[in-house]
Amino acid sequence: MVVAPQSLESLSAEQLRELTARLMVQVRHQSALLDKLTHENALLKRMKFAAQSERFNPEQKSLLEDEIEADLAAVASEIDALAQTQAPATSEKKQAKRLPLPAHLPRREIRHEPTSTKCACGCQMKRVGEDVAEKLDYVPGVFSVERHIRGKWACARCETIQQTPVDAHVIDKGIPTTGLLAQVLVGKYADHLPLYRQEAIFGRAGLAIPRSTLAQWVGTCGVRLQPLVDALKTESLGHRVLHADETPVAMLKPGEGKTHRAYLWAYAPGAFEGIKAVVYDFCESRSGEHARRFLGHGTDKAWKGSLICDDFSGYKALIASGVTEVGCLAHARRKFFDLHAANQSQIAGFALQQFARVYEIERGVKELDTEQRQAVRQQQTRPILDALHEWMTLQRRQVPDGSATAKALDYSLRRWDALTRFVDDGQLPVDNNWIENQIRPIAIGRNNWLFAGSLRAGQRAAAVMSLIQSARMNGHDPYAYLKDILTRLPTHKASRIDQLLPHRWKPADA
């Protein structure tokens, strides 16, 4: 709003005060908008050029970070080489102690001996010791064939023939062993290798199995493994506390050759529930109806416990139907972290200090039982959060609406009851990081999948990945786990299927 100077002379004092008030409102609005845009610009730059996480976790490196690590190693080598050329000849470089290679790896010896063991003086030398240096080698996989020879035994007198029956197999009359099937599944769903890449890898090993054949094996195994995934879901829904999260995955539209955004939902029993498991659910959209269906709402077996989730509106119908909402303190902290990273906000800095105090207490109570954890939270965490809430309320009155600071404060204040519910229940975790860590491998693999070919393909992927990731959570090698259960499933009693779940599994030879 622009006012001509000559028109100001004709305004009364009351009109001038009213005009000044309107101009101040406009200035505050523009200031808040500028603050918002500056925050968004800094956030977008950080998303594009900086690390995607608040912490530099070596297990979450991107491909770019891998290249940076390689460059750092190359520079370090060049510096070492330069230092050696400039250092005195008598100086010795202190070598870092290298960990020995694993003892279980097979070893082959390569002897390096002098061509002659006679000294220049003519005497025969004696061996007085040796130096050993180990180097790690790798040989690509090699196919082999199992020849199952079943002898036929005949009785000449009664003219009968006896022969050992064929063992049941997950693919009836199929040529792959369960080891090969496990390798294909782990390659596709754990190592994120599409079947056309596996076809090339197998070709280099001596037998290029067509991807159409590999796809048939994957489809059959998905069907055979589904009862185990259903049992894992039933077991998970038997717990009072659940984590939930979702991540987008592209899915091909049948007949159109285009993709649309589907979602992979993840559910896991609470971090303190005493069970390590995760169940993925592939759905065509992000509609909250999918979460209601998974949790059985609308049936007589509806799950009604404590659900740790973010502020996504899709969970609101569950909350309205009796599910207890538990907020994620890490999400609230992240709002202030982004604010502080963008403009070094003092408000954000103070909030981050208080969140750090809460998390320090949580690290100390992690190994305690439920009652002890709740007692410590009531005594130590409650006063910190009460003071933080009062401080946030006062700060909110002083910042303009629509600013980045206001949004960060509003997120916490609006969800304060859900965010602090963990203080009154020792069985509840402080945040939703438990399930976010289980969904992270899916986000990494998404770069290699490109898209899910169909709804069924996405659901099959979700089923197999549920077993693979649950096996990892329990410290099992996914290959060994899948190979064993694929061997045992054809003859295993359906009533005892829970014995094969990852958190209860024991190898057959154990």
Low-confidence stretches: 52-82
- The ordered string of helix (H) and strand (E) elements is HHHEEHHHEEEHEHEHHHHHHHH
Beta-strand content bin? 5-15%
Strand order in the sheet with the most strands: 5-4-3-6-7
Which sheet architecture does the biggest sheet show? 5 strands, mixed
Tell me the helix content. 40-55%
Distance between the termini: 81 Å
Return Rg in Å: 32 Å
Give the count of helical stretches: 16
Number of strands: 7
- Average pLDDT over all residues: 81
Structural class: alpha/beta
Shape: extended
Domain Transposase IS66 zinc-finger binding: 117-159
Domain Transposase IS66 central: 173-459
Protein name: IS66 family transposase
Pfam family, one: LZ_Tnp_IS66
What does this structure look like?
With 510 residues, the protein is an alpha/beta fold. Helix content is 49%, strand content 8%. The protein contains 16 helices and 7 strands. Strands 5-4-3-6-7 form a 5-stranded mixed sheet, with helices on both faces. A two-stranded antiparallel ribbon has the order 1-2. α2 crosses α9, α9 packs antiparallel against α10 and α10 runs antiparallel to α11. The longest helix has 37 residues. The chain is extended, with a radius of gyration of 32 Å. It starts with a helix and ends in a 22-residue tail after the last helix. About 6% of the residues have low confidence.
